[in-house]
Amino acid sequence: MKKLILILLLIPIVVYADKLSDEPLAGVSQEGLYVVRINNAEENVLGKGIARIYRLDGEVYKKVSEFLLKKSMWLPTNVLISSAGNVYTLSDRASDDALTIYGLDGRLIKSLTLDQLIIGYQEDPEMFKQTISTVRWLCPGFKPWIHGDLLIAKLSSGDYLSVEDGNFEIFQQADRKPCSR
Questions:
Q1: pLDDT in tens, 163-177
Q2: Is 18 inside any structural domain?
Q3: N or C: which end of the chain has fewer CB within 10 A?
Q4: Shortest CA distance to 48 belongs to which of 62, 23, 66, 36?
Q5: CATH code assigned at 136
Q6: Residue 95 is part of which domain span?
């Protein structure tokens, strides 16, 4: 028994931990008409983030909507807002939906897990680098962006995700280069 314990102590164990940001998430629509802000973890109510949408009225932004995000242990990794005021959240947390879209009024338009979004992920979950709590499916060197109502995000595989009007497509570039893993 003592030999077994000694052997187990000698086996190196590597655990990747994630640092959570204390900064609130925010996004601005392309033309600056809308701003979305999601509270930080300290303000969470029952594990839900709160999204607040503001619209430019003259020279000041006025709140037009406030709603709770879908229940999650974590806040999303990225938040973006379209020209129409739709809110897109992207999450690399293994337990969360990867992509969630909310309307200006907070109604849930679409929510997709990584299995639903990336064909082949369920069969090969190691296609993306993983830690204890995250799946690094988004390219860390390429910030997702919105042009009008079109969302573009680069995946760590080198492919691109395109989302418009709730419909999504994964496409490849001829010269695609994976992000560093």
A1: 988 788 888 765 566
A2: no
A3: N
A4: 66
A5: 2.130.10.10
A6: 24-171
- CA 131 remoteness from chain centre: 16
Query: How far are the Cα atoms of 21, 95, 152, 180 from residue 70, in angstroms, in the given order?
Result: 19, 12, 22, 31
Q: Which residue has the higher pLDDT, 40 or 98?
A: 98
What's the number of domains the chain is made of? 1
Q: Which is nearest to 84 in space by CA: 150, 154, 24?
A: 150
pLDDT of 67 > 50? The answer is yes
In a domain, 180, yes or no: no
With beta carbons less than 8 A apart as the criterion, state whether 99 and 79 touch.
Answer: no
The edge-to-edge listing of strands for the beta sheet with 78-81 is 78-81, 87-90, 99-102, 108-112
The answer to whether 111 touches 99, Cβ cutoff 8 Å, is yes
Question: Which stretches within the chain are classed as H helix?
Answer: 2-10, 114-117
Containing 160, the helix (H) or strand (E) segment is: strand 160-164
CA 83 to chain centre: 19
Cα–Cα distance between 9 and 6 in angstroms, integer?
Answer: 5
Looking at this protein, which amino acid is placed at residue 110? K
Alpha-carbon gap, residue 117 to 65, rounded angstroms: 28
Q: pLDDT for 83-100, tens place per residue?
A: 999 999 998 877 778 899
- What distance in Å separates the CA atoms of residue 76 and residue 135, rounded to the nearest whole number? 13
